[in-house]
Amino acid sequence: MPDTDRMTPRATGAGWSVRDGLVTLDEPAVVLKAALDAVFTRWGAEAGARQQSYPPLLRVDDLRTLDYFRNFPHLGSPVARIRPDRLAALATSPYDVTGPLAATALPASDLADATHLLPSAACYGCFVHLTGSSTDTPVLVSTVAQCFRNEDCHDGLRRLWGFTMRELVCVGSAEAVRTHLDRHRERILAFGASLGLTLDRRPATDPFFQKDGARTVMQLLAPVKEEYLHTDGTAIASTNNHRNFFGERRAIGHAGRPAFTGCVAFGLERWVHALGDLFEGDLTAAHRAVRRAGERS
User: Are 220 and 204 in contact (CB under 8 A)?
Assistant: First the structure.
């Protein structure tokens, strides 16, 4: 990975550093990120969403039911334990931080089979949690998670291995999901405009459904995902209509039928990137703008 993976902001004393797709945020970026999340969390609360937090790992067998390894195997970050029979050898092996014996990885032979993955989206935990449930009224959930995507390249805050995602999830009828997504489409564009961000709303091409399935035809006719792009092409938010896919796969019911689901997703570090770009690295000014715009949104 070239050293372009490290990004130094133009403003002195404010910013972040990135190495191997993993970011360290300095205080002005932390404050800006928290202010953005507070705006999106308030949107969820105003819509009636209940805040929930889910486990930081997802089971492989749960993800298999969602076609994860058919559609997104390239994004997966498995979590594996060290084999018990290798613990003693690891504890006694020589280790020199700077010399030829420096260890940069644990060999696969030292690891047990992976039964869990790090989440690549915040909403997966919600749908696993709701498995087998049923409701006659829409369910709205606000959740945030550290998410991980095994990208083939990293690019500052634009494309990270580990990042923070806030999601506002709706579970219910097809109409309830459409209303949820429409409301937040307008809110995202209005909030961006009040900040001075020019956001380009475009259909995304993520292969969410099986490529050979009937849902793929519907996805081509009516895209299930739309992204909101900063002027440099960074997708900082998305609206996602899963139709009744999760309802069918996880036995989530609404009014006696498989529930429809949809979510609004915000990549918080990507918002920091876009505002850092807009305000030429002055994250304190960006924070003031977010607070003003948030009060009007």
Answer: no
Tell me, yes or no, whether 242 and 107 share the same domain.
no
For residue 137, with 0-12 CB atoms within 10 Å meaning exposed, 13-18 middle and 19 or more buried, which class applies?
exposed
Asked if 97 and 219 sit in the same domain, the reply is no
70 and 198 within one domain = yes
Domain identity same for 104 and 238:
no
Residues 246/127, Cβ–Cβ less than 8 Å? yes
Full residue range of the structural domain in which residue 105 is found: 83-118
Domain count along the chain:
2
- Would you state the structure tokens that stand for residue 129, as one six-digit string? 């949690």
Pure H helices in the chain: 27-47, 60-64, 68-71, 87-92, 123-129, 174-195, 214-221, 245-249, 268-278, 283-296
pLDDT digits (tens, 9 = 90+) for 31-46: 999 999 999 999 999 9
Instruction: Indicate the SS3 state at residue 30.
Output: helix
Alpha helices in 55-173 (DSSP H): 60-64, 68-71, 87-92, 123-129
| Pair (16, 144) in one structural domain | yes
Q: Residue 88 is encoded by which pair of tokens?
A: 């003693």
DSSP code for 263 = E
58 with 169, same domain? yes
pLDDT digits (tens, 9 = 90+) for 235-265: 999 999 999 999 999 999 999 999 999 999 9
The whole-model pTM stands at: 0.89
The token pair at 263 is 């979510």
